[in-house]
Specification:
Layout: E1 21-24, H1 37-48, E2 54-57, H2 69-83, E3 88-92, H3 98-111, E4 115-119, H4 128-140, E5 146-150, H5 152-155, H6 161-167, E6 173-178, H7 183-192, E7 198-201, H8 207-213, E8 217-220, H9 223-238, H10 242-258, H11 266-275, H12 291-304
Parallel strand pairs: 1-2, 1-8, 2-3, 3-4, 4-5, 5-6, 6-7, 7-8
Length: about 300
């Protein structure tokens, strides 16, 4: 347990609005490079059977920048059909274009998703007030709850704590996926955010620390393989069973690390082909992972079976 962490009581930790373990689901492609909706449908059902409470569709792991808008809408429809009443479906609708983000959010809402996720606008690196106006515009576009996605390593812009607190005042903005990679930032944000606002880990390896600090769950890549084990990890932290949490974390770290040896979702797709079934190669500009990466994912999966 990190020395700076605090463990909120059950009466103070927010309820997870979308579930505890959300899988940032990959997008399968067939041999011709088209989206394979049949494999996607099967994957959603597989995740529902293996520790996933909800899926984030067309996020980073789903190769959103390489998908067309019609493909994204078709994936939302397929996810809803496959999930039934077993999973929450969250659509990743954020882009660096506010107008396009609004339009995609409206279309996702129209097909019946349960929530939206909007990443910080990338490339343009807007100022903090630009972030406020962008996210509020997306939130105002539908009646759905919105999760922000704070990942400065990919976007070039951090949602600063005062900005996050300001955005949390919007009645539709109810959560953030924290992939900042800074425990001090996360602890400060959790301490200053309004009661009921949910913080999800956006990095499998930091899930334990973020839950200790008051987070509610994780948007996970590794849950493609180890969803039940991640559920056990989070439960151990919330129950303050520190030795068990540390044991599970140690067993899961090899797969957490292996999935990011190369740019995600390259290792994930290679691992799924080896351990589940083929989900196709990534679309350019991503490329297939190295054989050595596949072996490390397989080794991490084997280590995780000790949980």
């Amino acid at each position: 347990m990190p020395p700076t962490a605090t463990v909120p009581g059950m009466d103070t930790r927010p309820s997870p609005p979308f579930g505890t373990v959300l899988t940032a689901v990959l997008t399968p492609f067939d041999e011709g490079g088209a989206v394979d909706y049949g494999v996607f449908w099967k994957l959603i059902r597989h995740l529902a059977d293996n520790g996933t409470d909800g899926v984030v569709v067309t996020g980073t792991t789903g190769e959103a920048p390489a998908l067309s808008k019609p493909e994204k809408i078709a994936l939302y429809k397929a996810a809803i059909e496959a999930a039934g009443d077993r999973l929450k479906v969250i659509a990743g609708t954020g882009t660096y274009n506010t107008t396009e983000s609004i339009a995609l959010s409206e279309q996702a809402a129209a097909v019946g998703v349960h929530g939206l996720m909007a990443v910080t606008p990338y490339y343009s690196r807007p100022p903090q007030q630009g972030l406020v106006k962008h996210f509020r515009a997306v939130a105002d576009a539908t009646d759905l709850p919105l999760m922000l996605y704070n990942i400065p390593s990919r976007t070039g812009r951090l949602i600063e704590v005062p900005t996050l607190v300001e955005l949390a005042g919007h009645d539709k903005i109810i959560a953030v996926k924290d992939a900042v990679g800074d425990h001090e930032y996360t602890s400060r944000a959790i301490s200053e955010l309004p009661e009921g606002f949910a913080v999800y880990s956006g990095d499998d390896a930091r899930t334990k620390d973020i839950i200790y600090a008051g987070g509610v769950g994780v948007v996970s890549v590794a849950a493609h393989f180890v969803g039940p084990q991640i559920q056990k990890l989070i439960a151990a932290v919330i129950e303050e069973n520190h030795d068990e949490a540390n044991r599970i974390q140690d067993a899961l770290m090899p797969i957490f690390q292996a999935l990011f040896i190369e740019p995600s979702p390259m290792p994930l797709k290679a691992g799924m082909a080896a351990l589940w079934e083929s989900v196709g190669e990534p679309r350019l500009p991503l490329v297939p992972a190295a054989d050595e990466t596949t072996e490390q994912v397989k080794g991490g999966y084997e280590a995780a079976q000790a949980v």
